[in-house]
Write a structure and sequence with these properties.
The chain has five helices and four strands. With about 170 residues, the chain is an alpha+beta fold. It has two domains: about 100 residues, no CATH class; about 50 residues. A four-stranded antiparallel beta sheet has the order 1-2-3-4, covered by helices on one side. A hairpin with a 5-residue loop joins strand 3 and strand 4. The chain starts with 13 loop residues before the first helix and ends with a helix.
Length: about 170
């Protein structure tokens, strides 16, 4: 076995090598998730009739964690709220309901659900499907008209050459 001057010394621990390479050991992963169950329970106490509670883990780990609490089926932004908790104490750092958002943020939250038809329930989704089918039909008819005109132009060109003898 050859020794390279750039290689790490054999005495260096695995944890130290992982830390230097950006990888985490099992203990470090465990520390990242410590106390999350208590924080999820605290978020559930804030909105007892919740349907789902989600958390996006920050990287690197932060002192405050933001939970998204949904009371609906995921398609109604007005039934969502955000709770930011201090990771160490479980105290509320910030509580934001849909009604506390400014007009721009509320409009932005509704934009996707309106665009996909989810805001209107089954009727809204049906209208969105019909509109999508209509758009696809317009693309098809545009392409077919373009191909038909191209072929007619090409045919006229061949006839003109045949009559002029070129």
């Amino acid at each position: 076995m050859r020794h390279h001057p750039q290689s790490q010394p054999a005495a260096q621990s695995l944890a130290e090598r992982n830390r230097n390479s950006g990888q985490r050991t099992g203990a470090e992963h465990g520390a990242r998730f410590d106390g999350l169950e208590k924080l999820f329970a605290r978020a559930g106490q804030q909105v007892p009739d919740f349907t789902t509670i989600s958390l996006r883990l920050p990287n690197p780990p932060a002192n405050a964690l933001t939970f998204t609490i949904d009371r609906g089926n995921g398609g109604r932004p007005d039934l969502r709220s955000q709770l930011t908790l201090d990771r160490a104490t479980g105290e509320i750092v910030r509580w934001e309901t849909f009604s506390s958002y400014n007009s721009g943020r509320r409009l932005h939250a509704w934009a996707r659900f309106t665009h996909t038809g989810e805001a209107g329930g089954l009727l809204g989704q049906t209208i969105a499907v019909i509109a999508s089918a209509g758009a696809a039909l317009l693309v098809f008819t545009g392409l077919s008209l373009g191909v038909r005109r191209f072929l007619a132009w090409k045919e006229r060109r061949v006839k003109v050459r045949a009559t002029t003898g070129s």
